[in-house]
Specification:
Strand content: under 5%
Number of domains: 1
Structural class: mainly alpha
Radius of gyration: 19 Å
Number of helices: 8
Shape: globular
Mean pLDDT: 77
Helix content: 55-70%
Low-confidence stretches: 1-15
Largest sheet: none
Number of strands: 0
Length: 198
Amino acid sequence: MPSQQDADPSRAGPKTSPTHLARLAEGDEQAWELFNEVYAPLIRRWAKWFCKTDVEDIVQQVSVSMYKALQVNRSFKYDPSKGGFRKYLSTCARNAALASLRRKHPAALASEPPSDLEERWRHLEREEVIHHALRELVRSGEISTRNCEVFVRNKLRLESPGALAKEMGISEARVYVIVHEVREKLTGVLKEHYAWLA
């Protein structure tokens, strides 16, 4: 578990701490499990968005690249001025997706501006961390599955409170209360357990 000194709640957007990277490099099983819980779904979603084919191959290629860089040849060195781990992981995922497209679907390779790809990656990464935190809140019983659904549909899928209330059989005011309560708990969990990603 990351120490309190790894946390910097004033920073926005997911990031991996130097301590967590060191634990990955040492082969710490819990660090790898946490990495897989947070980043494998993100890489999978990003690969689906980017190339729609060979998604599991891309996830595997990225995992192997990361393993080699951190544990085998130790070529990855954390340098915050260069964007650190997130940039490295993004580059690995992008390169794996591009290689897959070049090999199997050269005509499908659309030229996306790199800044658009990076912005999409940051958005997906943040969304995956939020989903992971919400799953933990449901698993721990702090929020109900229904309240989690209301929050996700209203805040992440941008469904209107009125339509959501009607479909869920609750008042619109109740939707606002649920969203507020879940947001409060989510913010607390993100600050406490995911601040090293923030």
